[in-house]
Amino acid sequence: AGTATGLPFGDYAYSGLLGYRVLGLVPFPIPISWFYMLVGSLAIVARLRPAADTARVNWRWAMLAGLLMVAWDISMDPAMVSTGHWRWGGGEMFLPLPGWGRAFFTRDVFYGMPLSNWLGWFLTATLIARVMLLLIPPRRVADRIAPSSFPLALYVANGVMPVALCLREGFWWAALLGALAMGVPAGLAWRRSLVDVSTSPPLAQARA
Fold first, then answer.
1. In 4, 15, 130, 145, which residue has its Cα 20 to 30 A from 190's Cα atom?
2. In 10-127, which ranges are E strands?
3. Quick check: helix, strand or coil at residue 71?
4. What pLDDT sits at residue 6?
5. What is the per-residue pLDDT for 208?
């Protein structure tokens, strides 16, 4: 787990504000929020990209979902640190690394976050999304999940809170960049109908 090893996110620790911890490490709300935000992210991808049940499309969708999760973290991480939900450490476990390696995992580049945090978010979210797409392939996501406005609304709603907290704390860049990074793809997805370049009919029609 990242809290025990510092990989891949960096040296961080959760406070007791998030409640019960799974295996004493990760607060229970964290995997739940990751799951429903990934569902929302995949729903956005399904509205913006063609659906096909191939390995290439699966990886492409997973990486785009990973980027949408990083967009969420732009404002959420500064907000949660400011409210005491977690904190960044000094990175003592990275002392054996060369200078550039220590800097990657420990240097403050954005409101206390090291670069490793965003890479960790992207890699972790991409891998989880890829597993989710093994269980629910892109065509099924496009047919069953993306048409509903609920996953998209859930994604947006969970972006509003950290942006508002950043505004309250005066973290102007975190609020602005977080709002843009989440708002632009969500807005495009909200306005566009599903894109499906396949010649096969939707699953619902195929069963008729």
1. 130
2. 12-14, 21-22, 26-27, 86-88
3. helix
4. 66
5. 42
For residue 12, list its beta bridge partners.
Answer: 88
Q: What is the pLDDT of residue 195?
A: 45
Between the CA of residue 53 and those of 68, 137, 156, 194, 205, what are the distances in Å?
Answer: 21, 6, 27, 16, 17
Q: How far does Cα 195 stand from its chain's mean position?
A: 22
Nearest 5°: the CA angle 77, 80, 86 is 95
Q: Where are the domains of the chain?
A: 8-196+200-204
Single-letter amino acid, residue 169:
E
Question: Mean pLDDT by 10-residue block, N- to C-terminus, for the chain (208 residues)?
Answer: 69 82 81 95 95 95 98 95 87 83 88 92 97 96 93 95 95 97 95 52 46
Give Cα separations from 45 to 23, 134, 186 (angstroms).
33, 16, 9
Report the candidate in 32, 42, 35, 49 with the shortest Cα–Cα distance to residue 144. 42
CA distance 7 to 196: 38
